[in-house]
Write a structure and sequence with these properties.
The structure is a homodimer of 199-residue chains. Chain A is 42% helix and 13% strand. Chain A contains seven helices and six strands; from the N terminus they run αααβββαβαβαβα. Chain A folds into two domains: 6-54, Helicase, Ruva Protein, domain 3; 76-198, Dna Topoisomerase Vi A Subunit, Chain: A, domain 2 (3-Layer(aba) Sandwich). Chain A has a four-stranded parallel β-sheet with strand order 4-3-5-6. In chain A, α1 crosses α2. Chain A has helices spanning 6-15, 23-35, 38-54, 89-98, 125-134, 148-161, 186-194, and strands at 56-57, 64-65, 79-86, 103-107, 139-142, 167-170. At the A-B interface, α1, α2, α3, β2 and α4 of A face α1, α2, α3, β2 and α4 of B.
């Protein structure tokens, strides 16, 4: 990195902290910054600071937002008697992109993972239970990855919530649209069989 | 982009302005920023502003630098009677990384390209000629890409400089190290043949 003039070396180094960015991409990005007009660069750097400063966790659903409670929790057009439980805000965003879901959310901020030392106490499970006690909830939808940690968390939540009588469901696992049965892995195929529905 | 809370949408949008960054990578980067501690984020945004503010072109060789003249032009350990002519600062950096070259540079800030409306007057050629008149230059090395624009620029410079009697050379084109003759394209192979040296 001694080949760069100091501020450039520093910028390249900072870009390398971003996920998936190696030295070459970082250099390309740094040169792009130097090529941009000064007011664009200011806008860029402001966007970074503003996002970090303004975005907090919604105190109600723990979604990331600049509002508190967040835009989803305060949206009257949504059905707040359905809570979709996700692990991270990025999962919430993926669901929002489908434009199919019009209920509310609860972001766990992680999944149970004993190997990483993450126990139910580290997640926003307590707050979810409080919501169930205080709100008129009709259904809980678990939209959690079909991974080991996801299965453990789903199981834990199911056991915890079932006794309260609230309807609890999990999103379907099966063949992705556009895939071919022949090439799909066995576990997915097994889940698709298991989740079959009468037509 | 309506799925993001506003400051996040803005940040994702800004990241998408970087070369090679699509919506998915931009989202990953934005989340990385939100995960970083506040002081790290401040450092990141400062590095962007600082690079843009401090890095100017060296008035002597037109390298990008926070110093003026740049670190290379003022380095006494370098041989300033040799000038290596490159198109862009990124080419200079590539040469510096070899640690093989200990002379000075001259950055043209582009290549002659009539199709893009870039004429010799748009490049730092006048300044190069001034250097030749004012400095004791022994050799000019053209380290310019073997592209159409690169060939045109090299030819133009050769014709311009030759009469002054300064030795002028061009870096070698041939097989890249580690490549196989069988798989190399014909033009490279022709250049390699043409550039053969007695052993």
């Amino acid at each position: 990195m001694t080949h760069y003039t100091k501020p450039l070396a520093r910028l390249v180094e900072e870009f390398q902290k971003l996920p998936g960015i190696g030295p070459k991409s970082a250099q390309r990005m740094a040169f792009q910054i130097l090529k941009m007009p000064a007011h664009e660069v200011r806008k860029f750097s402001d966007a970074i600071l503003e996002a970090k400063e303004k975005i907090k966790y919604c105190r109600h659903c723990f979604n990331m937002s600049s509002e508190n409670p967040c835009e989803i929790c305060t949206d009257d057009r949504r059905n707040h008697s359905i809570i979709c439980v996700v692990a991270e805000t990025r999962d919430l965003i993926a669901l929002e992109k489908t434009r199919e879901y019009k209920g509310s959310y609860h972001v766990l901020q992680g999944l149970i993972s004993p190997l990483d030392g993450i126990t139910p106490e580290d997640l926003r499970i307590k707050e979810l239970i409080e919501r169930l006690q205080n709100e008129k909830t009709e259904e809980i939808i678990l939209a959690i990855n079909p991974s080991v940690e996801g299965e453990a968390t789903s199981m834990y939540l199911t056991k915890l919530i079932k006794p309260s009588g609230v309807k609890i469901s999990r999103i379907a696992f099966g063949l992705p649209v556009g895939s071919e049965l022949e090439y799909v892995d066995e576990i997915t195929l097994a889940r698709a069989l298991e989740g079959r529905r009468e037509v």
